[in-house]
């Protein structure tokens, strides 16, 4: 696979989305540099998934626009691939056939290569139904990257996985990102996941960007004090905890056995 | 290796234990005179008339014509049901227009139409074809419709993301997704197919297995009547096996159908 492909840049300008009477996004302004790894965090219902769906072209904005490399997004674009929380593999197609869906010209060799990158080329001829949840998600990842997308959109892709599988997937994504230089927009509600992976963490609250924090930590990220610092800053901001918030006093007596 | 093959043979024989026992019981009760010959003929007599009808070609002719009616009626009714289920499943406006009518017709027992169909077509082939088509139409229509509507919209969205639309989207995503449900419809309608045909041939026919049985009644030929009933049982089992085989070969990906048995 060629390694020269550059990630796409992404800008949103006054991006707004209404569903009926509810305004989910209220003038979202966001700029992402080519090859950057962005994590979007926020409470559920804050509009972060809608942002991703608008960028992917799965929904149309009510007003404003998203631009990919300066070109307005108006519909599904093969340069931007989405990995959803569910793997969404077609259960009636074998693993390799599922990956071929994403390959240019449904090319079989490229599909095998992508499966090799996620470490599943041995399962190419299996039905998706016999794979574990983590393996299915890796196949979905292979399907997303096989067409060399310039922007990878991840919509809580590890949400349904157990903690250890999740760590494996995070490592895999980080590795592929480092090798293939695509831009990543990761939507998650897990702040430590965001800090572990992203160059910048964006906090979305009530349809707007309310925090844009650059994570100045080296890679691979260690869970050290710097890591904890960023995690705390973002978590406090999300939970609206300020230093003068009154906590219940600690009990005066403590008993231990 | 030899042992394994023998065990497989035994496994295949298990479903036939009860039918064989019934025949043995039937043989004993009729030959010892517990059941009189004019109530139920002994099995050997049925076998004898089977051989006789086989030799004079009457059996082949009647079974052939019944099978032909069944298959033709199934194809006509089944394809209309499938197409309508498909159109109404994919296209909400079509459902809005047609579904009420289809549900009203569905609730008329199709066998209740026999008198009017006889008045229209007499006892010709159209009568049987119409009734069989009507009978198989509804299970296939309903299950195709249901199969498409219960398809996961997330998979359809995924298909669109990867460039499927129109006919390819239908062949790669919608149809395979609805297939388990469609096959349930096919299995149901195969049962209804034989049932309808039996009734139609018994009431209004001049050939076929049902006619053979009704004709035998006139001459008090109990053996032929019983033979006809057994033929229906065998044909029904045969078509059910066919449907099962279809499920097994088309739904290999489906965890529920991968068990070997």
TrEMBL record, chain A:
Keywords, comma-separated and alphabetical: ATP-binding, Cell membrane, Hydrolase, Membrane, Nucleotide-binding, Translocase, Transport
Enzyme class: hydrolase
Domain ABC transporter: 10-231
Keyword hit for Hydrolase: yes
A Gene Ontology molecular function term of the record: hydrolase activity
Record-linked Pfam families: ABC_tran
EC number assigned by the record: 3.6.3.-
Protein name: Sulfonate transport system ATP-binding protein
Source organism (scientific name): Paenibacillus forsythiae
Lineage per the UniProt record: Bacteria, Bacillati, Bacillota, Bacilli, Bacillales
Automatic annotation (TrEMBL), chain B:
Localization: Cell membrane
Family annotation (Pfam families): BPD_transp_1
Record membrane topology: Multi-pass membrane protein
Spans traversing the lipid bilayer: 12-40, 70-92, 104-123, 129-148, 169-186, 192-212, 224-246
Domain of life, source organism: Bacteria
Keywords: Cell membrane, Membrane, Transmembrane, Transmembrane helix, Transport
Main location: membrane
Keyword Manganese: no
Domain ABC transmembrane type-1: 59-243
Similarity comment: family membership: Belongs to the binding-protein-dependent transport system permease family.
Protein name: Sulfonate transport system permease protein
Phylogenetic placement of the source organism: Bacteria, Bacillati, Bacillota, Bacilli, Bacillales
